[in-house]
Every structure is written in structure tokens, then in C-alpha cells.
Amino acid sequence: MVSAIPYGSDFGLDASLETPMTLRQFLAAASPEPAPAMKRQRREGVQVVNAPPPYFFVAVDQELQPELAETLEASLGLSAGTELPWPLGAVQTGQQLPFRATTLQFAVGAEGSGSPMHFHQDALNLCLRGRKRWWLVPPSEAAFSRCHPLDALDMGTTAKSVKDCFEGACVFEQEEGDIVYVPDMWGHAVLNLEDHTVCVAAEFA
PANTHER family given for it (predicted)? Predict the structure, then answer.
């Protein structure tokens, strides 16, 4: 699925703004048409003109995306419903962790694409290519928002609570090969800083 923000309809956005598309189609598209959004100029070091770039984001399913599912299992040892390798196969501990991956997600985004503030269960996020900026807040400050990170930062006092959520966050950048652990119910938003930033995430319990 391709949209301005991942799972936009789940955040209350018009479902018609989401475009069913395979990864192959997304990568082959010369210039996918972005969804409508507020105009903005370069800020936070990222160029976004008129609308946020489209973001390919999918929950990996063995039946719906067999090739992707097989690739993640073969290269990272990741498969939904199985024991979680630690950390994503990078270190051999000789021990199995008492956690199971409940959801696997795969995303590809252009510079300026991103996810609004949201929260969920524990997750590991591996950046396979590119660079991402994160905003992380504790559960007491967490919120569900449908505002793209750049829109939230541009907001005035009329949406002070949304903007404060970002301004009070722990901010850091994730580079290629870095793994980010997002604790259970911690709020987080993400902004892709390079074209074709690729990540895979595993929520676990």
C-alpha cells in the first residue's frame, strides 16, 4: 500500500488517498503521484514540496508477499509468529529469546516521507538503507496523530499539544545498519532523510 502516511485510513484519513501497489510497481514508478497535503518548504534539512512523498508500507504476509517473507526469513531469520532472533541475526548468542514476532513490516520511502506520532507494542526497527530521524516520547506523552512530522513541526499555537509532543521528544537519527528498539507503548514518529530509505520492523511480545 502507498500513501502519504502508513495506514492512513487507520488514522482517520480518506481511504481513497491510499493506493494499492506492489513494491515492484512502486519502485518502477518514475514519479508516483503524491497525496494532497499542506504546502511547506525545506525544513529540518529535508526538501518536501507541496505534499509529502508517497510511502510504501506493508505488513508482511507469507501468502500475500511470499517472496518478501522468504527473503526476510532467509536473510534476517524473521518470520511472523516465530521466535525473535537477537538482534535480528546480527549477533549469535546461542540462546533463543522468550519473544515472538507478532507483526513484520517493510517500508520504502523517499526523502521527506514519514510516519506520524503513534505507539504500539515493543518493536525492533532495522534500517537497511538510507537514514531516518526519530522522535521518541514516553507512554505518558504518547499520542496517536495523523499529522505528518513536518506538518506537526509547522503547527502554531492552535495545535500546541501536538507540536509540544515533538519538541519535548528524544530526537535522534538512525543510519544504515542501525537497529532501534522502541519500548512498549512509547510514542514515536519517523521522518525519512534520504530517497529510497528502506526499513524492516518486527513488533514482538
Answer: ARGININE DEMETHYLASE AND LYSYL-HYDROXYLASE JMJD (PTHR12480)
In tens, the pLDDT along 167-196 reads 789 999 999 999 999 999 999 999 999 999
3-state secondary structure 70-129: HHHHHHHCCCCCCECCCCCCCCCCCCCCCCEEEEEEEEEECCCCEEEEECCCCEEEEEEE
How far apart are the C-alpha atoms of 99 and 133, rounded to whole Å? Answer: 27
Q: Pick from 65, 75, 195: which is nearest to 126 by CA?
A: 75
CA gap 114, 59 in Å, rounded? 16
- Residues facing 191 on adjacent strands: 114, 133
* CATH, residue 23: 2.60.120.10
Q: What DSSP character marks residue 12?
A: T
What is the extent of the structural domain holding 59? 2-204
Question: Which tens digit of pLDDT belongs to each residue from 23-45?
Answer: 888 888 855 454 444 344 445 55
The pTM score is 0.81
